[in-house]
Amino acid sequence: MTVCALAAAEFHRPGAAVRVDDDTIATAFTSERHLRVDGRAPTTFAPLSRFWATSDGWLRTHANYPHHRARLLASLGVPDTGDEEAAVAAVGAALAGRHGREVEEEVQAAGGLAVAVRDRAEWAASPQGAAAATRPLPELTRLDDAVGDEVPPQPSGLRVLDLTRVIAGPVATRTLALLGADVLRVDAPRLPESEGAHADTGFGKRSTQLDLGRHADRAEFEDLLRQAHVIVTGYRPGALDRFGLAPRELAARRPGLVVARLDAWGTTGPWADRRGFDSLVQAATGIALVEGDGGRPGALPAQALDHGTGYLLAAGVLRALTARRLAAPGSRLIQASLAGTASWLLDGVPPDTALDVPREPAEAGRRHRLRQRDSALGLLRYAPSPVRYVGGPDDWPRPPGPLGADRPVWEAGTPGA
Description:
The chain is α/β, with parallel strands linked by helices.
C-alpha cells in the first residue's frame, strides 16, 4: 500500500509526504464487505463456493458465476435442479469419496474452478509454485523503444482502458481513477459480473460494453486504444490474444502504451492458462491451512491477494508512466499475479504462522472511516481509498454507475479526446 501511495505521489506530487493509516488500509482491504447500496449488503460467495471434504483432504471450489456453477455441477455429474440446498448436499456426497487432485483436474478441464488444498511445502515443491516464486513483484518489462505521445503532466489527462473483472484488476484501475484518470471499463455484453463487485470497484470510472467479436464494436475499441495511455487486463493469459490484445500487438498499434496484465497463477508454469480467484490461490499455496483451525482449512481475514495485487499493479503502472514522462521512451508491460503475491507473503514466514496481512479495526474505527454518497445505483456506504499523500485526492471524483451504461468514448475535455 505504501509503495502504491509513493508511486502516486511521485507521478502527481513529486516529493509529497505519504500518509499511512493502518485502520484505513485494513478497512479498504475488506471494502467489498462494507459496501451498502440503499442499506443492502451485496452477496459475496455463492453456496457452492466453499471448502469440501474429500477422501484425501480438502477441495476448494468457486462457483459465484452461473457458467462456473454449471460447469462444476456437470463435471461432477450432479443435475442442476435450481435447488441450492440439494446441490450442496449432492456435491458434498460426490466429493466425499473422491481424490482432490483428480477432481481438480476434471473440473478444470471442464472449464470450472476447483483446487485441492495443499500445504506450503507441497506448493513450493510444485512446478507452478516454483514458477510463481521466481518472478518479480510486479514484473516490469520494456517492450520497445517507441517514443509515443507525451505522458500528461497531471493524472487528469490520463486515459485508461480497463478490461478487468471482480476485485484485483478493478482495484488497480479504481486507484488510477482516484487520481483523476479517465478510466473506461469495457465488458463483454454477455459476460456476467457481480453487481456488488462492480459497485465496490467502480468508483471514479465509467463503464461500457463492447463485443470484440463484432466488427463495429471492434472498430470502436480500436478508436479508444489509439488515444489510450494505459490498458489494464485481468483475464487469464492468452484469453484476449485472439482479439489482437497480446502486449506486443497492443504496443505496435499504440506506441508508448503502458500495458498492465494481471492473472491468477502467473504467466509461466503448467497452470499459467488456468482460471483462478483469490480463494483458490489461498487454497493451493498453503495459506488456507495456515489460516485454518483444527485441521479444517480457513481463509485470510481479507481477500488480501486480490487487494494487495491490485495496488501493486497500480504502483507499477504509475512508475512506468513516471519513467516515460522523464524522457525514458518505450512501451512497457507490467505483470502481476495472485500466486506471486501469495509467494511473497509466505516468503520467510515460519510454518504454521499466521500471515501479517491487514486485519479489520474495531467496529468504532471502521464506522468512523466509512463514507456515504448518492449515486445512480442508490445511496452508497463505502470504504475510502487508503492511497493518501499530501496534496492528493481525498475521494473519487464520481460514484459508480450501472454496468455498461456509458458510451465507448473518452470524456469531452480529456486531452486528445
